[in-house]
Design goal:
five-stranded mixed β-sheet; alpha/beta; 14 helices; about 40% helix; single chain; globular; 12 strands; seven-stranded mixed β-sheet; about 400 residues
């Protein structure tokens, strides 16, 4: 369906109907599949003929999600996984080996930093963290053992913007892969493949589902590269359940509508926060005050629905804002139709060292808000209550 527009792909791509001709995507809740005879079983297990084998690595509902997301991103193939973190792990385990090296933005999710340092590091895969927006720093960190560059853009939680096209050129020149976590923007706002990325990763838990219901992850890339990721998934089993795949399929149908409305509200909220005397600084790519505003407006359609702001008075003042909310949900999740608020230094980035937080610009007064679909006036009033105190 490559000839169709984004909204049509979001609703129609990947759907395969059973003999019953169902209009909605079917949910195949089964652990295994029955074969007509021994020869067919052998042919499917070997891959000589296509078909379902075992739900750890083949399921019609999951396949529909994979085809739809690949179409939306403009990639050749997608491999769905149990969570966003398992998508990152699957990519690393499938494509790297002991002695290899990763260059990563320092401004990445706290759990991703933990994965690189404490899990992957045990298997002699090293990681160098660099300043997110400094292309020269990525280039300088490359070694003959570097196999991939990993970035989030916008970053979590400060919404730093990495020049994907510029970094893709550096990666091509060095013969390494560029991996982009596109969780914050989704293909509705940003298309990393069009800018030169080799692999796109998602926590489908976030905007792809969009209503905070299920966990899921995805890796998108070329057929050749995704075959390696699929082989890892088949053996190791970080499998997306068919129920979760079905929920995310339904979420994709409203993806663009949701994220455009949420992005518009987030920009309104960011502009309002800039006028509040208790707020030292606001971080949102749509603001003219954002250091990479011009770059964001070139490589994204909108600024996105995530913003962060620094409250004067450190942790005590920030927690007071959180504790006085009545509308916003106090949770570290994001991408929901319900707005959420969290204190990154003590939640999403609480497991990394104080030094690492400081290097990433995550202060004790910083709060992150993922704007949902509530009235923007009610969200403003909810934050104003805590700021006033």
């Amino acid at each position: 369906m490559s000839d169709f527009e984004f909204d049509t792909l979001a609703v129609r791509a990947g759907q395969v109907r059973s003999q019953f001709g169902e209009h909605g995507e079917a949910m195949y809740l089964t652990s295994s599949f029955v074969f007509d005879n021994a020869a067919q079983a052998a042919a499917r297990f070997s891959g000589e003929v296509p078909g379902m084998v075992y739900a750890r690595f083949t399921n019609p509902t999951v396949n529909m999600l994979q085809e739809r997301l690949a179409a939306l991103e403009g990639g050749q193939r997608c491999v769905a996984t149990a969570s966003g973190m398992s998508a990152i792990l699957a990519t690393i385990m499938a494509l790297l080996q002991a002695g290899d090296h990763i260059v990563s933005s320092r401004s990445i999710f706290g759990a991703t930093q933990q994965l690189f340092a404490n899990i992957i590091g045990k298997f002699a895969v090293s990681t160098t963290l660099v300043e997110a927006t400094n292309l020269d720093a990525y280039r300088a960190a490359l070694t003959p053992k570097t196999k991939l560059i990993f970035i989030e853009t916008p970053s979590n939680p400060l919404t730093e913007i990495v020049d994907i096209a510029g970094l893709a050129q550096i990666a091509r020149d060095a013969g390494v892969m560029l991996v982009v976590d596109n969780c914050f923007c989704t293909p509705a706002l940003q298309k990393p493949f069009e800018l030169g990325a080799d692999i796109v990763i998602h926590s489908a838990t976030k905007y792809l589902d969009g209503q905070g219901r299920v966990l899921g992850g995805a890796v998108v890339g070329s057929n050749e590269t995704m075959e390696e990721v699929f082989k890892y998934l088949r053996t190791a089993g970080p499998t997306l359940s068919p129920f979760n795949a079905w929920v995310i399929l339904k979420g994709l149908e409203t993806l663009r509508i949701r994220i455009e409305a949420q992005s518009a509200s987030a920009l309104q909220l960011a502009r309002w926060l800039e006028t509040q005397p208790q707020v030292a600084r606001v971080f949102h790519p749509g603001l003219e005050s954002h250091p990479q505003h011009a770059l964001a407006m070139r490589q994204q359609r909108l600024g996105g629905a995530i913003l962060s702001f620094e409250v004067k008075g450190g942790r005590e003042a920030a927690w007071r804002v959180v504790d006085n909310t009545r509308v916003l949900s106090i949770t570290a999740n994001l991408g929901d139709t319900k707005s959420t608020i969290t204190h990154p230094a003590s939640t999403t980035h609480g497991r990394i060292s104080a030094e690492a937080r400081a290097a990433s610009g995550i202060t004790e007064g910083l709060l992150r808000v993922a704007v949902g679909l509530e009235s923007i006036e009610d969200i403003k009033a909810d934050l104003a209550r805590g700021l006033a105190r």
